[in-house]
Amino acid sequence: MASAGGPLYEAWVKGDPTNKVLGDCPFCHRVLLTLEEKELPYRKEYVDFAAKPEWLFSVNKNGSVPVVKDLSTENWLVDSAGICDAVEAAHPEHKLGSSDSIPDVAGSLFPAFKAFLQSPGPDEDARRSAAYVQQLRQIQDYLRTNSKGPYLGGQEPAAADLSLSPKLYHTTVALKHFKGFETPSELAEVPAYLSRMQGRKSWKNTFYSEDQVIAGWAAH
């Protein structure tokens, strides 16, 4: 059981357990941002993807992270969306919304990014980059026409922002490095939005470098 004043959750995420360095997983990042934005005390533990512990597969048969232990119940939570929904339900005082309340903004960002990243050559690059740019355009259009503030959630980040921004960070960094891609100038509100998210305390407390992102996607 969690002791008074102690952590409420134990979050197992991608990283270096020896040096206590956070890894580059956007799904882990989403969960950590949620805990940070809700200002919930938690303990961060790290899983080396090259040497996953056996117990992880008993908690999550896929052996994937994040997984989070609720220290008040000793129950394990799996899957980033499920974890965030459970945390939201248990702690509604700082409302972020649930995964089913997330507006469908750039829902195909990651598939479009992966297709562009894995493009076989210049002839295919143009088509795949256009599909990715369309996802960026959806983000900008939503910020301009549907959001009531600088974030998808309005004046403060909501679950939508905490899901989207780590993915946007990965796609921006990886495509610049591997494809020389820069966000078109007419979509300047998108990098400005990401910069706002990166300026938040929650992001600074869950930081991992661009070099880590690049190394993580090098195999792809």
From TrEMBL:
Residues 15-95 form the GST N-terminal domain. CDD domains: GST_N_family. It comes from the Eukaryota. Keywords: Transferase. It holds the Pfam family GST_N_2. The keyword Transferase applies. GO terms for molecular function: glutathione dehydrogenase (ascorbate) activity; transferase activity. GO terms for biological process: ascorbate glutathione cycle. It catalyses: L-dehydroascorbate + 2 glutathione = glutathione disulfide + L-ascorbate. Belongs to the GST superfamily. DHAR family. This is GST N-terminal domain-containing protein.
